[in-house]
Specification:
single chain, 484 residues, Rossmann fold, six-stranded mixed sheet, 19 strands, globular
C-alpha cells in the first residue's frame, strides 16, 4: 500500500506551496485519480508519491509518503513529458535500461522487454531509434520502460496526453488492467477521466495545491456542474465543455499543398498530400500516431524537406525556402512544449520571436501584456518557463507564437495538459484570431474538443489525407484504416 500523510512541497525560490496537506491511500488492486486545473499541483503530487520531492527535485517537503506491504518493489513513475524518460538511442535499449541497472540475467531482461512492449502495443517499435518516434510512440515506450521494472505501485502523470484515440484506448486499458487484473496500486493524474472512472476507487480534485474535493466516481457525476466550474472535465458530460465556434466566411487560400511528399532517411512519411486552408478557417488535422501529422507541419514551415510537390502561402510558392523567410507569416507550436522554450522568464519568452524579427515596440509590448492576461500568464511574467506546469507551458507556447500575428497558425497538440477552463480560454483566443482572418491548422487527438471548434477536419493516415466535412462526426471517433 502507498500512503501519503500531509504531503506538501514548496519549490526552491518559490514562496507559495505547490502542494499542501495531501492525504491519500491506494492499495493493491486500487486506482486513485488526481484531477484539477492546470498548475493545481497534480504533477507535484505525482513526484511526491514517487519519493522524488526534496531529493531529485529541490525544495522544502512536508509530511510523509509510506510504502508498506509484505513484498515491496518500489514505485514507478511515468512523467508528463515522455522525452524526459528517454536516455538511450533505441527502443530496445530504452526498455532494457532499468532491468540492466538491476543487474538481472540477460534472459530475464529480454523477456521483460518483450512483455512490457507488448503490454503497451509497441512491440513493433523494438528496433526503432527513439529519435524517430512520434509523441505517442514515445509515450508508449516511456510506460513500457517503467513496466519493465515491475514496480508494485505505478504513478502515471497524464499517460494518454500524446496518444491518438486508439492508442489512448490501449494505454488506458493497460492502466486499468494493472490495477484490476495484476493487483498493482495505481495513481493516475489526468484531465480526461472518461475510461478510468470505471476502475477508480477514489477521485481527488486539487485546486491551488490543496484537495478541494474527493469522492467516488458516482459522486463525481452527481457533482458534475460544480467540478466543471473548477476546470474538471467530467466524464459523460460533453454538454459542460462550453466550447463555441465563431461563424467566419472563409477568405482566399492561406495555405495550399499539392502532391507533397516528404519523410526522413529512406522512409517516406507523406505520400502526395493535397490540402487547402483558407483565411479565417480552422481545420483539424487528426490521425493515428506516426501517421505524418508532425512531419506535415514541419514540411510546411521548411523544417523538413519537401521531396516532391509544392507549398504555397497566400499564393506564393515557398517550397524549399528557409524557415527564416516564413517566420513572420507562419507560426508553429511544436508538439513538445519544452522544445519551444528558450528564455529565463515568461516575459522574455513572449518577446523572443518579435525581438529576433526586429518587431519590438511599445504597441507590441502592450499586445504581449494583453495576450499574457488572456492566457492566464500575467502573474507569471517573471517566472522561469521550466517552472510552469505542462498546461501552462503549452499556453505560453501558443501565446508566444500569437504575439507576432502570423497569418497561418499551426498548432501541434495545443490541448495537451489543459484543464477545461484553459481549453475554453485557448479556443476563445483562436476564434478571435479566425475572425481577424488568421488561417488555423490544429493537430489534436482530443476529438471531442475538435468536433466543437473546427470548420472541418482532415485525416492523415499512412501519409495520405481524407476529408471529414462535418467536424461533429469526430466526437464519435475516427475509423483509422478505413481511409478512402
Amino acid at each position: 500500500m502507498l500512503r501519503a500523510k500531509g504531503l506538501g512541497f514548496t519549490y526552491r525560490r518559490s514562496s507559495r506551496p505547490a502542494l499542501s496537506g495531501l492525504d491519500l491511500s491506494v492499495g493493491p488492486g486500487e486506482m486513485a485519480l488526481l484531477a484539477g486545473p492546470s498548475g493545481c499541483g497534480k504533477s507535484t503530487a505525482a513526484l511526491g508519491l514517487a519519493g522524488l520531492l526534496g531529493g531529485a527535485v529541490a525544495g522544502t517537503k512536508e509530511g510523509e509518503v509510506i510504502l508498506e506491504g509484505p513484498s515491496v518493489d518500489g514505485v514507478g513513475i511515468v512523467q508528463q513529458d515522455p522525452e524526459s524518460h528517454l536516455v538511450t538511442l533505441t527502443v530496445r535499449d530504452e526498455v532494457a535500461f532499468g532491468p540492466e541497472n538491476l543487474a538481472l540475467p540477460r534472459e530475464e531482461i529480454l523477456e521483460r522487454i518483450g512483455h512490457a512492449l507488448a503490454t503497451v502495443g509497441a512491440d513493433h517499435l523494438v528496433d526503432r531509434s527513439t529519435n524517430e518516434l512520434s509523441g505517442g510512440e514515445k509515450q508508449r515506450v516511456a510506460i513500457a520502460s517503467v513496466l519493465a521494472m515491475r514496480p508494485d505501485v505505478l504513478v502515471l502523470d497524464e499517460p494518454s496526453a500524446n496518444l491518438d484515440p486508439r492508442g489512448r484506448e490501449d494505454v488506458l486499458d493497460v492502466t486499468m488492467s494493472l490495477a484490476r487484473d495484476q493487483g498493482k496500486a495505481v495513481v493516475v493524474s489526468e484531465h480526461r477521466l472518461d475510461r478510468l472512472v470505471d476502475v477508480a476507487t477514489e477521485v481527488v480534485v486539487l485546486v491551488n495545491g490543496k484537495a478541494s474535493w474527493r469522492g467516488t466516481t458516482e459522486e463525481m457525476i452527481s457533482d458534475a456542474e460544480e467540478l466543471s466550474r473548477s476546470g474538471v472535465r467530467v466524464p459523460g458530460r460533453p454538454d459542460l465543455l462550453g466550447l463555441t465556434r465563431v461563424e467566419v466566411e472563409p477568405g482566399e487560400p492561406a495555405l495550399e499543398l499539392e502532391g507533397l511528399v516528404s519523410g526522413y532517411g529512406d522512409t517516406r512519411v507523406l505520400e502526395g498530400v493535397d490540402l487547402v486552408v483558407r483565411a479565417g478557417e480552422m481545420v483539424g488535422l487528426v490521425g493515428p500516431n506516426g501517421g505524418g501529422k508532425t512531419t506535415l507541419l514541419r514540411c510546411i514551415l521548411g523544417l523538413a524537406e519537401a521531396w516532391e510537390g509544392s507549398v504555397a502561402l497566400a499564393g506564393d510558392d515557398v517550397t524549399g525556402q528557409p524557415t527564416s523567410k516564413m517566420a513572420r507569416r507562419v507560426g508553429l507550436v511544436f508538439q513538445s512544449p519544452d522544445h519551444q522554450l528558450f528564455e529565463g522568464t515568461v516575459r522574455a519568452e513572449m518577446e523572443f520571436g518579435p525581438r529576433n524579427m526586429g518587431l519590438m515596440d511599445d504597441p507590441l509590448s502592450s499586445r504581449i501584456a494583453a495576450i499574457a492576461t488572456e492566457y492566464g500568464l500575467s502573474e507569471m511574467m517573471d517566472v522561469h518557463p521550466f517552472r510552469l506546469s505542462l498546461g501552462q507551458k503549452r499556453r505560453l507556447n501558443v501565446a508566444s507564437v500569437q504575439v507576432s500575428s502570423p497569418r497561418l497558425l499551426m498548432l501541434d497538440e495545443p490541448f495537451i495538459g489543459q484543464d477545461l477552463g484553459s481549453i475554453r480560454a485557448l479556443n476563445d483566443r483562436l476564434q478571435v484570431a479566425r475572425s481577424e482572418g488568421t488561417a488555423i491548422l490544429v493537430v489534436s487527438h482530443d476529438l471531442e474538443a475538435m468536433s466543437s471548434i473546427c470548420d472541418r477536419a482532415v485525416v492523415l493516415e499512412a501519409g495520405r489525407i481524407w476529408v471529414v466535412e462535418d467536424p461533429y462526426t469526430l466526437s464519435d471517433g475516427i475509423p483509422w484504416g478505413d481511409a478512402a
